[in-house]
Amino acid sequence: MKKGHFYVAIGLLIAVILSGVGVVYSKYQSRLLFNELEKNRKQHDVIEAEWGRLQLELGTRTNYNGIEKIAIENLHLHRPKAAEISIIESK
What we know:
Low-confidence stretches: none
Structural class: mainly alpha
Number of helices: 2
Largest sheet: none
Distance between the termini: 116 Å
Order of helices and strands: HH
Mean pLDDT: 90
Strand content: under 5%
Shape: rod-shaped
Number of strands: 0
Radius of gyration: 36 Å
Helix content: over 70%
């Protein structure tokens, strides 16, 4: 075998080894990114569920009965009787 062929063979061997290392590294990076993507998808699902719950709560709280219920239960307010209502006229 000639000296030139030997150097070409060594160069090709180094290229194959570097290519293999590159494949392994890119596969490793791909797995890391996939794991991060799955984590973000789970977080997205949790946030979507929370958003839906908040939308339902908003609908309930903006409803007149929902406001009245909160006023009675949390603030201990009551609906005034007719005798308790007075009308004030402004000038």
